[in-house]
Amino acid sequence: METMRLKQDIITETVRDWIRNGKYNPGEKLPTDIELANHFVVNRCTVAAGLKPLVEENLLERAPKRGTMVKRHTRKLCTNAVALLTRTKGEIYSKFTARINHELLKQDLYPVLMDEDLNRDYDDVIKFMRQLIKQTHPYGCLILGDHIPYEELKKTPYSLFKTVFLLRYHHFEEFENAYYALTDYEDLGRQIVEYFAERNIKRILFPPSAEIVFRGAWTSLQVTVLEHIKKYAAKAGLEVDADLFWRLHSGAPIDVVLPIAIGRSKVKTGIFSWSDSVLQQNIIPAVRNTGMDPLNDFTLLGNFNTRQSADVGFDTFDHRVEDIAKIGVDMLTGNITEKKILVPPQLIQHKLNIKSK
């Protein structure tokens, strides 16, 4: 879907390109506002509005009678600052961020990390990005695709530097100027079905975490994975309890809904959890409350490969966040020219018996 751009944004982007491409060099004068108005077929107020961001970015200097000059810079137009919008807390994200920092520093790039406690608020993210751009023209931007104001990123000047989305992406369209290093969630769904099929499981339960605010399948990775599980389960002849998924997804209590789903199981059943922690803290206790043994009566499969899976003793998936971090930085620096790379998760086995007898 093409988004209409304001004429003043077109002026901003075009004049910035003129400067970066050397059409107008430091110390040179731009055409007058009247000449620019004729060139862009707009009025002088629109020209002034289009040049204002370039003045704020320290690219232009405007003065009465003297006109508009390209500033003589004491620093590069493109700095080594990289905007980094991601989570940092927790076992997974601490490894992820540490690898990003390590790879950026190897390239003489400096990560500017937004406070994690603020990056869930759209207005705070927008303020952070605008302030960074105002203070310095960044080398690029690395973004974990959660809670991001995608519409803001369509505006000038975000299109003028490289943006790389990491791990996941929650927008219905892709940006022409962006790059993507993402987890392959379709492959995750395929591997889940393959895992259970190899163990002679005939029915899959996927108890999700509740997502009360749901704006569509593209906004929820849990729903995305469910659809992929259903697709491959149909090919393999496995049943998926979608009713259990949607009831828990909308907020129903797990200690009420899960026992009902378990009671409906007349065949060998496996349980996949969106995360190791949810499996350990919510699902296993709910199964025990039914009088059944979750580790012996069911085949359990976790996700995100945390220490909980090893401690409890169930298999899980490693999303290879450190590999994705390196790929993302390589995309940012041009060492990888592919626009989109999907990285399949890796099954991590903590059980001795791979297949059921």
Descriptive keywords:
single chain, 357 residues, alpha/beta, Arc Repressor Mutant, subunit A, Rossmann fold, 3 domains, 6-stranded parallel beta sheet, 4-stranded parallel beta sheet, 14 helices, 16% strand, disordered C terminus
Structural summary, described in words:
The protein is an alpha/beta fold and 357 residues long. The protein has three domains: 7-70, Orthogonal Bundle (Arc Repressor Mutant, subunit A); 81-183 and 321-344, Response regulator (Rossmann fold), CATH 3.40.50; 185-318, Rossmann fold (3-Layer(aba) Sandwich). The chain contains 14 helices and 14 strands. The chain has helices at residues 7-20, 33-40, 44-56, 91-106, 122-135, 150-153, 185-198, 221-236, 242-249, 254-264, 276-288, 294-297, 307-312, 321-333, and strands at residues 60-63, 67-70, 81-85, 110-113, 140-144, 162-167, 178-183, 203-205, 239-240, 269-272, 299-301, 316-318, 340-343, 346-348. The strands form four sheets. The protein has a six-stranded parallel beta sheet with strand order 4-3-5-6-7-13, sandwiched between helices. Strand 1 (60-63) and strand 2 form a beta hairpin. Helix 1 packs across helix 3 (44-56), helix 2 (33-40) crosses helix 3 and helix 7 packs across helix 8 (221-236). The protein starts with 6 loop residues before the first helix and ends in a 9-residue tail after the last strand. Mean pLDDT is 89; it is low at 352-357.
